[in-house]
Amino acid sequence: MSYRKFAQEYLKGAVNGASPLQLIIMLYDGALRFMEAGRHAMLAGEIDKQNTSLQRAQHVVTELMACLDMEQGGEVATNLFALYSFALNQLVEANISDKTEAIDACIKIFSDLRESWVRLEADLRLKTKPGDALAA
């Protein structure tokens, strides 16, 4: 089995075995990775790679927007939607105007949000210790 095929199978297994919170964190990781790649390509003058990376980041942000449950999420979902909309606009603007400042703003927002999701996931993991489900 080739390395690429092995990596794809490993990733598929990781996604299939992930909790909803872990999937959200994976989306944040992807968005951040594409933002960083777009920023690096912009600084290097690699326009095609910049465009591809920033468009991929935009797709991840759009996916996060689509995942929001505006009815059940209440104010949190509304605030996240506003942040995602801002980030999406900033990424488009960065790609058009070649301004790293807009990407930097998105990286800051997504890094902070990712950290919050990681803490939430860790808190939930502590509250539901292994064996709790068996005792019920």
Primary descriptors:
single chain, 136 residues, mainly alpha, Four Helix Bundle (Hemerythrin (Met), subunit A), FliS_sf, cell projection, flagellum, FliS, bacterial flagellum biogenesis
Write a short abstract of this structure:
Helices cover 88% and strands 0% of the residues. By secondary structure, the chain is an all-alpha fold.
Secondary structure: number of strands: 0
Task: Please outline the major beta sheet.
Answer: none
First-last Cα distance: 43 Å
Quote the beta fraction.
under 5%
Q: What is the level 1 CATH name?
A: Mainly Alpha
Count of the domains: 1
- Specify the CATH architecture: Up-down Bundle
Query: What structural category arises from helix and sheet content?
Result: mainly alpha
The helix/strand series, from N terminus to C terminus, equals HHHHHH
Low-confidence stretches: 6-11
Look up the CATH topology.
Answer: Four Helix Bundle (Hemerythrin (Met), subunit A)
Average pLDDT taken over every residue: 88
State the helical fraction.
over 70%
The radius of gyration over CA amounts to 17 Å
| Total of helices | 6
The dominant shape is: globular
CATH homologous superfamily designation:
Flagellar protein FliS
